[in-house]
Design goal:
This protein has helices spanning 2-31, 107-110, 129-144, 455-461; strands at 34-36, 49-55, 72-81, 99-103, 156-162, 202-209, 214-221, 239-247, 254-260, 268-275, 302-312, 317-327, 344-350, 370-372, 378-380, 392-396, 420-425, 449-453, 479-486, 493-506. The protein is mainly beta. It has one domain (41-359, 423-506). The longest helix is centred in the N-terminal third of the chain and has 30 residues, at 2-31. It is globular and about 75 Å long. Bound molecules: 2-acetamido-2-deoxy-beta-D-glucopyranose (5 copies). Residues 35-505 form the DUF7705 domain.
Length: 508
């Protein structure tokens, strides 16, 4: 009896130990279990959702291009197998292809221009060129939306932007405040009246091509509205093009990007973004539509993608291996659309090896006040022996920061509807811990790679300004993107492909 109770006692202990052990194993596993935060995980879904938007210097429309309409368009479709029905109720008998591609967005939708009504358009937006575009994006999102858990999602977003600014036109606010016309100190390119125009955007709707079952479509155009694009990118014109291609049922979409600057448009940007599916996205003060059905938050998320840089865009091209945009107020509170107190926060790694560190020991105003190593050790920028100056290209402070540490350099006050803060980093051993390039040239031309970046932990470690004594902001990244900014350098071409893009977040 006694012996038996001893055995069952042992057995009980055994069961308990086992239970605890497996609980620990399972919870560790759950902690390491990631799910995709984007609707189209790894860009593998045949039924593509992609849209395009174009911004002027301060992320508005300003003026529509005459023949093009409001600069928002989308290509969203579903593929159905066209099997002849023996009962004869639905018959695709005349169909050439074994599949039918049903587009959700018509040419009429894409051509919508200010003044033309559409379903859901608010009366006050119909004749306001900026609000009209923002609502057109919502309308296109409504047509493209895919139901999913925990949230529906809409599309990948191709973003175009021109840095031209006519300071005499007084179109862009300064740190969110309206300002009148002023003479430019050679900061912004502008060839004269109308230099802030929107580009042409042409569209080849996605088609299924036989015999190799390849899906292919494209958006392209030019800021030079008189350019003849029928022969492609010829002559000294500005140019943008994104082609998407995929084998039916196989692999990832491959997005092939081309951007060219010209004498009239020397400062251009082209990105592919995973934006928030509701609320604001990075740099945009209107409700947005996008691909991130879950907003990734530091420190727990990773970004995976394959990048092949074909042409770099010249020495002044800031090719962003990873660009993230968020918004929080200097007191740590989330943004609410008030453009004078909201602050857009950006961070990006520039992988063009021509980009050097502007931050160094005798130029501290463009270094963040401190660097945080992965073990938590903080090193102040005046600690010349330990601060990794070469890891930083440029840091600039928000124009509405009231307790900035001197010396500082304020960010460009015009290029966003609200003040901004930017931290640009360079390949360096201090980022190796997070899977980022550690040497100049890694991931650059001739070195295509699949990256898995611990963007969450890296972005948690970066310095961003907050008023002293305020609780730290939640760093939620509404926009995660890749692409190029060619900075004031005419006649340069950047070309690259992007595929397999995913954002991974912990399961719970
Ligand atoms: C294009 O610009 C380059 C440099 O600015 C110049 O050398 C070339 O002649 C131009 N080509 C054409 C076709 O205008
Ligand atoms: C926007 O923020 C500024 C600065 O905090 C504040 O003075 C202003 O009242 C706010 N505007 C609105 C409409 O809340
Ligand atoms: C840019 O980098 C390339 C390759 O490293 C080099 O050949 C070229 O001289 C650099 N140009 C400038 C302006 O630094
Ligand atoms: C933290 O890391 C830095 C850089 O690698 C190193 O210099 C420092 O000694 C480390 N501190 C601790 C407490 O381990
Ligand atoms: C470095 O900066 C810190 C913080 O502002 C300051 O306390 C310290 O005195 C500075 N050290 C030197 C050597 O300037």
């Amino acid at each position: 009896m006694a012996k038996q109770s001893k055995i069952s006692c042992c057995f009980l202990v055994f069961v308990l130990v086992n239970l605890i052990f497996w609980n620990v194993v399972l919870s560790v596993r759950a902690e390491n279990e990631f799910i995709s935060a984007v609707g189209d995980s790894g860009m593998r879904r045949d039924n593509l959702r992609v849209a395009i938007e174009s911004w002027n210097q301060c992320n508005e429309v300003g003026e529509e291009a005459l023949q093009i309409g409001s600069p928002r368009a989308a290509d969203c479709f579903d593929i159905y197998k066209a099997t002849p029905q023996p009962q004869g109720e639905v018959c695709f008998c005349n169909q050439q292809l074994p599949y039918v591609l049903v587009h959700r967005v018509t040419e009429q939708d894409n051509k919508l221009r200010m003044g033309e009504p559409f379903f859901g358009l608010q009366a006050e937006s119909q004749f306001n060129v900026d609000l009209y575009a923002a609502e057109k994006e919502l309308y296109l999102g409504f047509k493209c939306q895919v139901e999913d858990t925990p949230n529906p999602w809409q599309f990948w977003m191709i973003m175009l932007k021109s840095g031209n600014m006519d300071t005499y036109a007084a179109k862009c606010p300064k740190n969110g405040h309206r300002v009148g016309p002023f003479p430019d100190q050679n900061t912004f390119p502008c060839f004269g009246k109308g230099c802030m125009n929107q580009p042409s955007i042409y569209h080849d709707y996605t088609k299924l091509q036989l015999p190799d079952m390849t899906l292919k479509g494209r958006f392209f155009g030019s800021w030079d509205l008189d350019a003849d694009l029928s022969r492609g990118m010829v002559g000294n014109i500005s140019y943008h093009s994104v082609t998407w291609e995929k084998k039916l049922g196989e692999g990832s979409w491959v997005f092939h990007h081309v951007l060219r600057t010209s004498a009239k448009y020397p400062w251009l940007m082209l990105y592919l973004r995973s934006d928030a599916t509701h609320g604001f996205s990075g740099g945009y003060h209107y409700p947005t539509r996008g691909m991130s059905k879950i907003i990734p938050e530091s420190p727990n998320f990773k970004v995976r993608f394959t990048l092949n840089v074909i042409k770099g865009g010249g020495p002044s091209s800031q090719f962003y291996l990873m660009d993230m945009g968020s918004c929080w107020k200097n007191n740590g509170k989330p943004c609410d659309g008030n453009v004078t107190s909201d602050v857009t926060r950006y961070s990006e790694m520039i992988i063009n090896p021509n980009t050097t560190s502007w931050c160094h020991a005798n130029n501290l105003n463009v270094c963040p006040p401190y660097h945080t190593f992965p073990n938590g050790t903080r090193v102040h920028r005046n600690d010349t022996a330990r601060f990794p100056y070469a890891a930083y290209h440029l840091y600039c402070s928000p124009g509405n920061g009231e307790h900035l540490e001197a010396p500082f350099n304020l960010c460009d006050p015009y290029s966003n509807p609200q003040p901004q803060e930017i931290l640009q980093i360079l390949p360096h051993p201090v980022w190796g811990e997070y899977g980022y390039p550690t040497k100049q040239g890694e991931g650059w031309i001739g070195d295509p790679r699949t990256w898995e970046l611990d963007v969450g932990r890296l972005s948690q470690s970066l310095y961003f300004y907050q008023d002293p004594g305020t609780p730290p902001a939640r760093r939620q990244w509404m926009s995660i993107d890749l692409g190029v900014e060619i900075f004031k350098d005419p006649d340069q071409v950047a070309e690259w492909t992007l595929s397999d893009f995913d954002i991974l977040v912990p399961k719970q």
